[in-house]
Inverse folding.
């Protein structure tokens, strides 16, 4: 059975619906909670797939959060060896930095459900099932597209929402993994951010009720396509 290591930064930002898809595709995964677990002896190349999840810190915050230095080094080594990496939100930003691209604040927050616009090259990519499907956005930073990568998607608020490098690396600024039930953990964990942004919890719940079923199906298809691309 192929193995997946998942770097998790806060407990409520987990694999969500993607965990079920991994099991259905015959992959075994386990989490490493990187803020509290040393990565000093971690073998960057051992796992078949590395997934780096999101979190409420900046990809540029290694001074305040030194564990990010270890994550960046691991991601950089895997990408250099073309070992599979999937990054979501903070994870994608760390991938971009590891590939030499800049990550910086947008000046606005993009929080809530909304569609992405696929680039023409992405119409036949693993992201094709997300065409017209609202995804969950939750970020204030934006990555630039690395020189070695292909831009796959943008949104009305953030022009860079996804990139790929070959078949082995996929970075997603948005969140495809969050279920309607899982969102409740986000509403608690990000309560201060939501209050400061003046966002309505009721509206976010309504958006999730409308979008979660179609998003879960599309996310399953995206993950299955990406894994098939890697191993078939």
């Amino acid at each position: 059975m192929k193995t997946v290591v998942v770097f998790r930064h806060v407990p409520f930002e987990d694999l969500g619906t993607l965990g079920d898809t991994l099991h259905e595709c015959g992959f075994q995964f386990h989490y490493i909670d990187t803020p509290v677990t040393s990565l000093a002896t971690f073998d960057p190349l051992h796992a078949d797939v590395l997934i780096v999840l999101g979190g409420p810190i900046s990809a540029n915050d290694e001074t305040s959060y030194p564990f990010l230095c270890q994550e960046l080094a691991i991601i950089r080594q895997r990408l250099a060896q073309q070992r599979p990496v999937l990054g979501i939100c903070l994870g994608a930003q760390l991938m971009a930095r590891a590939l030499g691209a800049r990550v910086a604040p947008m000046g606005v927050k993009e929080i809530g459900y909304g569609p992405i616009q696929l680039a023409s090259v992405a119409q036949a990519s693993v992201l094709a099932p997300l065409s017209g499907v609202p995804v969950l956005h939750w970020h204030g930073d934006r990555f630039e597209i690395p020189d070695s990568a292909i831009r796959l998607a943008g949104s009305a608020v953030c022009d860079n929402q996804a990139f790929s490098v070959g078949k082995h690396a996929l970075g997603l600024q948005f969140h495809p993994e969050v279920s309607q039930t899982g969102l409740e953990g986000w509403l608690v964990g990000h309560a201060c951010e939501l209050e400061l942004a003046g966002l309505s919890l009721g509206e976010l719940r309504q958006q999730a009720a409308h979008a979660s079923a179609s998003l879960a199906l599309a996310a399953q298809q995206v993950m299955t396509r990406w894994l098939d691309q890697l191993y078939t």
About this structure: Residues 126 and 225 are 6 Å apart (CA to CA). Helices lie at 17-24, 67-80, 90-98, 180-189, 191-197, 201-231.
